[in-house]
Amino acid sequence: MNGVQQIALTGGPVEYRWLGPKAGPLLVLLHEGLGSIAQWKSFPQQLTEATGLGVLVYSRHGYGGSGPIVLPRPLDYMHREAVGPLPELLSALAVDRHVLIGHSDGGTIALLNAALAPAAGLMGVIAEAPHIFVEDMTVTGIRGALELYGDDSHPKSLRRRLAGYHGGNVDLAFHGWAGAWLHPDFRAWDIEAEMALIRQPVLLVQGRQDEYASLEQIDRIQRRLSGRVERFVVEDCGHSPHLQHPDQVAAAMAAFIASLPV
Questions:
Q1: Could you tell me if 30 and 106 are in contact, meaning their C-beta atoms sit under 8 angstroms apart?
Q2: pLDDT tens digits for 103-121?
Q3: Residues 12, 18, 22, CA angle at the centre, nearest 5°?
Q4: How many CA atoms lie less than 13 Å away from 158 in the CB half-sphere?
């Protein structure tokens, strides 16, 4: 992919791409549980055009063209990402003022970073379709994805589709994610208490018809946050508002970012 580079981190190489200006605040995008740089599609470019700011997008270990992981993922993998590789990446690339923008798992990681290991330059967080506790509908959706993944003969084979983005990492990406979420012990996973530690402004974005989570997710986050919080519920929209309604979402994110203290 044009403009993709690699940087060596403690856990192995990580691929990243920088769009737009490098001076001034930076928007750092954190992908979903099955995502990568490429799966953001044209949204990073749309975001830099809407805000005039640079965008840093990267694939976590075990995804895209980044280094592999060892399965199974630990059940606290999102905590570990938030306090380890993410801060290390920001430091290695000399990122100063920045806004974290995360989708699904990436939204959760962004919130956890703000709660547990925020860099001095963190200006705000945008969490799109984040999870802070486990719902039955999430587990049901992941079980359905597992069925589609394991059947290569199915016309909608998930493995075939994901292989185009993750290459040799495809099984690591899928089973690392699904294996953690479907583990019986993961049903007790709950990070609601950590939300009270966040001090930066937060924008919560979720589709009204999100098939992987109810609005109770962002309701609980909003109740716990002690600082400024805004929410944008996107109508006629599922789990990926930035892909399903990119113009609305880019505009809402741009407005929030413009309102942050410089």
A1: yes
A2: 999 999 999 999 999 999 9
A3: 120
A4: 17
Please state, in angstroms and rounded to a whole number, the distance separating the CA atoms of residues 253 and 248.
9
Among the residues of the chain, which ranges form H helices? 43-51, 77-83, 85-92, 105-116, 136-150, 158-166, 170-181, 216-224, 241-244, 246-258
Residue with tokens 């379709």, as numbered in its chain: 129
In whole angstroms, give the CA distance from residue 234 to residue 227. Answer: 23
Domain extent at residue 67: 4-134+189-258
Question: Is residue 165 domain-resident?
Answer: no
- Closest to 182 measured CA to CA, from 73, 255, 89, 42: 73
Q: Could you give the CA distance from residue 128 to residue 33 in angstroms, rounded to a whole number?
A: 13
CATH number at residue 243: 3.40.50.1820
Examine residue 95 and state whether it is found in any structural domain, yes or no.
yes
| Lookup: tokens for 157 | 């084979």
Helix (H, G, I), strand (E, B) or coil at 83: helix
Q: For residue 12, is it left (φ>0), alpha (ψ between -120 and 50) or beta?
A: left
pLDDT at 156: 74
Say if 125 falls within a structural domain: yes
Going across the sheet that includes 26-30, the strands are 4-9, 12-19, 54-58, 26-30, 98-103, 122-128, 202-207, 229-234
| Cβ proximity of 245 and 234 under 8 Å | yes
How many domains does one find in the chain?
1
Residue ranges for the chain with pLDDT beneath 50: 1
